[in-house]
Amino acid sequence: MQTIKFSSDEAWQKQFAAAVRQNVNKYFKDKGISIKGNFVLFTQTVAMLAFYIVPLVILLTMPMSAWLGLPLVVIMGIGMAGVGMCVMHDAVHGSYSGKEWLNKIMGGTMYLLGSNVFNWKIQHNVMHHAYTNIQGYDEDIAVSTFIRLSQFAPAKKFYRYQYIHAFFFYGLLTISKLTNDFFQLARYNKTGITRKFNVNPVMEYAKMVVVKILYLFVFIGLPLLITGFTWWQVLLGFFIMHWTAGFIMSTIFQMAHVVEGAKQFQPDNEGIIHTEWAVNEVLTTSDFARNNWLLNWYAGGLNFQIEHHLFPNICHVHYHNIAPIVEKTANEYGLFYNLKPSFLNALTSHITRLKELGRQVA
Questions:
Q1: Residue-wise pLDDT tens digits, 110-119
Q2: How far from the centroid of its chain's Cα atoms is residue 176's Cα?
Q3: Measuring CA to CA, which residue among 131, 119, 111, 124 is closest to residue 2?
Q4: pTM of the model
Q5: Cα torsion angle, 152, 157, 162, 168, sign
Q6: Which of 16, 42, 163, 247 could disulfide-link to 171, CB 3.0 to 4.6 Å?
Q7: Is 194 exposed, middle or buried (0-12, 13-18, 19+ CB in 10 A)?
Q8: Where are the domains of the chain?
C-alpha cells in the first residue's frame, strides 16, 4: 500500500492547525477542566449498559410471548449502539479517562458487541482517522458489493438505487463483524500490521474465538436453554437486535462523512495529498444537529465529527462546548466548516449524496 503524506505549500494551513489547537487548549485551561470524561459520561455509561443488559436479564428470567420479547430486543439494539458510540468509542481512543486501565476496561465493552478491540483500533483509530474518506485506505468507505460510498470506487448499475437499499445493509454492520473479524485480522497479519503493533496473531485469533463463543452462548445459547422461545424466535431476536444497532451506528456515522460538502481526496502519483492533515479532517467531515440535546447525549459525539477528528484525545462530552471555537477558527482562516443544522437536514443530505454516488461514473 502506498504511503500517504499530507503536505501543503499554503502557510495558512499550518497556521490553522496550530491556531485551532491553541484555542481549544485555552478553553480547557481557562475552565480548569480535564479533557477526559466527567459525570455526564458516567451517566451515559450506566444508561447504555442498562439498555443493553437489563432487557436480556428480563428475557432470560421472565416467561413471555415473542411479541412481548420483540420490543426488548429492539431496546437491546439501541443499548448496543449506545455502548459502541458512548462508551467503547471514547475508551479505545483513550479519551474516556486519564487512567489507562479504565480506558482498557471500558474499551473492552467492544467484546460485549461480539467484536474485537484490536481490529477496531486499526480500522478506526489508525486507518479512518489518519486517512479520512480516502478510497483504499479508509475502511469505513471501503468498496462494498452493495453500496458505493466513494466517488473514486468503481461504479455499477446496482448502485443506482443505493439511496433506498443502503439502509438495510447498514443494519448488517455489527452482525457481519462476527465473522468478518477473522478475515480482517488475517488481512492485517498479511500486511504486517500485527507485527507493527507487537500483536501475536495466534493469541489474537484465540482470544477472538473464545470471546465470540462466549458471546454467542450468552445471547443465543442461554435463551435456547432456559427460555420457552423456539430456536427461530431466538435467532430472529438476535438478528433484530444486531440490525437495530448496526442501522443506528452506520447511519449516524455516514451522516458525518458521506454528505454534501464532505470532500473525498486521492493522493497524487507521489502519494501526496496537497492539504495539511488538520485541514483535510475539516474538509472531509461534517457536524450536524449540534443543539439536539438527546442526540448529543446518545450518539457519543458522532454528530460533532469535525471536533472528534481534530481532537480524538478529547472526550465527546466536551464537543458541544468546543465546536463554536473550532468553527470560529475555521472561519477566520476561510476554511469551510460543514454544519448541517438538524438531524433531518443531515439525513436528507446523506440520501442526496448516496444518489449522486450511485449515478456517478468513477
A1: 999 999 999 9
A2: 15
A3: 131
A4: 0.94
A5: negative
A6: 247
A7: buried
A8: 1-362
